[in-house]
Amino acid sequence: MLRIVFLLFITIPLLELWVLIEVGSGIGGLSTIALCLLTAALGGFLIRYQGLSTLVDAQKRMAHGEAPLDHGLHGLMIALSGILLFTPGFITDSIGFLLLFPPFRRFMIGRLPTQQIQSPHQARHNSSSGSDIIDVEVITHDKHVP
């Protein structure tokens, strides 16, 4: 895993430089810089909009008694999108804009390895099959009440 991360830290900047040089030679240096600044500004606006939209949707779900479990992952992807969009380069900008597209985020979340999430009111019973779930009700007593 460390080799892959190291390889990404080497190859992505080199690819970004190559693409910037190619684009700069085609449309000019100042136009390339202006385009990078434009994508960062547009990305900043979209990140703010998507972040607020995700937050409002999570609050609506909580108000209806639903747990907004996937909204945390959406928020992380929006934050990663912001990092990518503010990094100069067209490759990172493309990936950053893709992460701002909600269907793409849902697709990526669906491809993540998942673990079974238990509610705090459930406990796993270790039986031979290992698949039994016992519902447990938690009752707390306040010691200060007479």
Residues in β-strands, percent: under 5%
Extract low-pLDDT stretches: 116-127
SS class: mainly alpha
End-to-end C-alpha gap = 58 Å
Write down the Rg. 23 Å
Characterize the quaternary organization of these chains: single chain
Strand count, sense and barrel status of the largest sheet are: 2 strands, antiparallel
Number of domains: 1
Order of strands in the sheet with most strands: 1-2
Mean pLDDT: 80
Supply the number of helical segments.
5
Provide the helix percentage.
Answer: 55-70%
Overall outline: elongated
Order of helices and strands: HHHHHEE
What's the short story on this structure?
It is built from five helices and two strands, in the order αααααββ.
Explained architecture:
By secondary structure, the protein is mainly α. It has one domain (2-112). The chain contains 5 helices and 2 strands, in the order H-H-H-H-H-E-E. A two-stranded antiparallel ribbon has the order 1-2. It is elongated, with a radius of gyration of 23 Å. The chain crosses the membrane at residues 6-23, 30-52, 72-101.
Features:
mainly alpha, 5 helices, 2 strands, two-stranded antiparallel sheet, 146 residues
Write the layout of secondary structure elements.
Layout lengths: L1 H26 L1 H35 L5 H18 L3 H10 L2 H10 L10 E3 L8 E3 L11
Helix pairs in contact: 1-2, 2-3, 2-4, 3-4, 3-5
